[in-house]
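pasting input
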Amino acid sequence: MRKLTLTVLLIPPILWLGLLIVLPHVQLLALSLRERMEVGVYAYNLNQYKSFFTETVFLETFIRTAIMSALATALTLVIALPMAWIIVKIAKGRGASTLFVMCLLPFWISETIRTLGWMILLRESGVIPQFLVAIGVTAQPIELLYHDATIMMGLVYTSMLFMLVPLINAIETLDNSLIEAAYNLGANNAAIIRTIVLPHALPGITAGCIIVFMLCLGNYLTPTLLGGTHSQWFTEQIYNQFITRFNWEQGSALGFLLLLLSTLMIAIALRLSGQRFTDVMRRA
Amino acid sequence: MIPSLPRSTVFKTGTWLYLSAFLIFLFLPLITVAVFAFNDAAYPAPPWHGFTWDWFLGNDAKNRVGLLADDELLNSILTSSIVASFVTLLSLSLGTLNAFLMERVNFKGKTLLATMILVPMVIPGVILGISILAFASNCAELLSQWFGWELEWLRPGLPLVVLGQFSYIAAISTLTIAARLKRFDRTLEEAALNLGASRIAVFVTILLPFLRPALLGAAAMSFLMSFENFNTTVMLVGSDAPLTIEMYGRMREGATPTINAVSVLLMLMSAVIALTLFRRDEPSNP
């Protein structure tokens, strides 16, 4: 009887994972391995992957997306770390929780709206270029949208919370007396950060970096809106193949490569910090 | 570094400067969106032309289409709400079931299931979208070939959007509910059983009230995440556009402040949900 109940209860999660996660990805892999010869006739080969290397635009966009995502992740970490420190260690009581809620609030609001805000701020006729003219920094309004730096800023902005939360969780368990002891023994700030804070926060740093990198890599909205037609983000290539060109075979291969890259980076980050996947995800 | 150690003035000033810059960075885009929803000009751009409600209330008579007269936008809000309600319902039910399986039962393959539950969260949303799109189309094709069934809901459209969003939001709600269930003191349950309560009575009078904050939190989060999802939705959407897709289309073309107006409305909605959740959390979560 118990066994039967358990089996019945296990059906929904298995259906969920099987039908929405596992089988679709098997299908994606299968699609990526075939080539359309003529209507209804397919051959199975590696041509879709070959064209990834021969058509330079795919490879270039891929590398560009990977490097920019890694940079955005590093930047987010550097900006989020002091904030996490302030919230946990410097602000006190109500101040700390108010600060945390303030950091949280923007992320309850959709990425579309936040991006709209940046577009109104940054475009040539927008707030910041007009302001720069008004205070005499530039003679003409300059276009601040559609640069790589703009994409980068947008990615850092949308990723901030996902770095902040694991960092705060990690720093919260750091005992102040360790820092006081180090200080009494003559360590300066740099030494304290290097030998105490960073090693202690490492699990949080890993979790944050994994999530942020993955979010940047898979982001479509921010790069296409802030980068315009020249954003050259890899997800845009996937979208073009799937939706615009209706070339699902090529699109699947590109999608699989993106998935591979994202999984590989997660594996490397886990290996480097010596952690387990399940622990890291729970932390986040 | 910390208050108990001496800090130089430079360090203190630096902290304040950094804090202000950080908060400005966080809130500047939101404030900008809100401000230009009330600007009396055809495009959301400076300078300030005076205050107006036109972008909310405007109609043909005023030659401006305000939010309340913009049928497409209103329809997309309705579409998003329907999608989000289904996603919330599904994610909450599955999340609760998963949480109980993870925390209360032992069975073969539990570690595998526990790991698999986390997987949807590390797959980029775009990939989730295309894989479900490809799989559903293939299923539709095969079913039509084998049985002559024409299943419209397997083609791009709202049912697929719901499934696509549900595929990863369920994982998040599972974690939220499981985290709370883990902290439950099982002696309470045993006491109730000893005193003669039935299993159902224990569930309704002890477990459910205990899980309430987590269930509410998971519901609010699921609803918002669904409402705001773009990356997965864009791959699965058919002819009915949810709000984010509609807004994205307009933003690429340079839209009127009507979308600022709808943004203000959404911000209010998010703020209300967020604040009620925080308030609810405080007494039970010291």
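fyi Residues 70-255 of chain B form a domain with the MetI-like fold fold (CATH 1.10.3720.10).
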